[in-house]
Amino acid sequence: AQTVTQSQPEMSVQEAETVTLSCTYDTSESDYYLFWYKQPPSRQMILVIRQEAYKQQNATENRFSVNFQKAAKSFSLKISDSQLGDAAMYFCAYRGMQGGSEKLVFGKGMKLTVNP
Amino acid sequence: GAVVSQHPSWVICKSGTSVKIECRSLDFQATTMFWYRQFPKQSLMLMATSNEGSKATYEQGVEKDKFLINHASLTLSTLTVTSAHPEDSSFYICSARAGRFYEQYFGPGTRLTVT
Questions:
Q1: Would the CA dihedral through B109, B62, B57, B104 be positive or negative?
Q2: From CA A27, how far away is CA A32, in angstroms rounded?
Q3: Cβ contacts (< 8 Å) between B102 and chain A: which residues?
Q4: Could you tell me how far CA B22 lies from the centroid of its own chain?
Q5: How far apart are CA B41 and CA A30, in angstroms?
Q6: I need a labelling partner for B99 at 20 to 30 A (CA). Which of A52, B12, B21, B51 fits?
Q7: pLDDT on residue B91
Q8: B109 vs chain A: nearest CA distance in angstroms?
């Protein structure tokens, strides 16, 4: 079974600084998707970024970018120019591509605090 | 696009009663929806996968008779917590599959408190 590990339960960053959130996963599949979701205090889950495993290029969405290391099974999220609105729980998630593998496997999450 | 709503956002019910939570895809059709449960400061736990027109697939350890799921249309799935008990108090979140990458778009969640 696939597992997703977020080893840092909490992090903090100063506004305008850069922070990197780590995530590792375990799978025997060769093709899959990886996601970072954000859950602010409203508890609405928001998709931050998606990475397809067959793509070598790291995904980027404005201030958010990932460092995808397939061999190491590592998928970290970098937030540049941190803003107060980035404060939230961040969940790393895995989804297989084989039939019947639509389920998302979530990590335990990491609480990010942004200090003004 | 890809907006998912849930109703109600917060419900309080008495022990022994049943409560229904609705999950709607507002601007797209969703053949597959998912129901999650989230305890405070914890991650999301998948309860079941709901497919339109067929029986839901429950995760191991989730009581089918207690958590009834009905996906009667392409835009609506419901979760009914039957004979609720205080330990069923939790935050319930639904999501709907959409897009070319079959991404999951989440509803805002429903807080259930059983007294």
A1: positive
A2: 9
A3: 95, 102
A4: 7
A5: 32
A6: B21
A7: 96
A8: 7
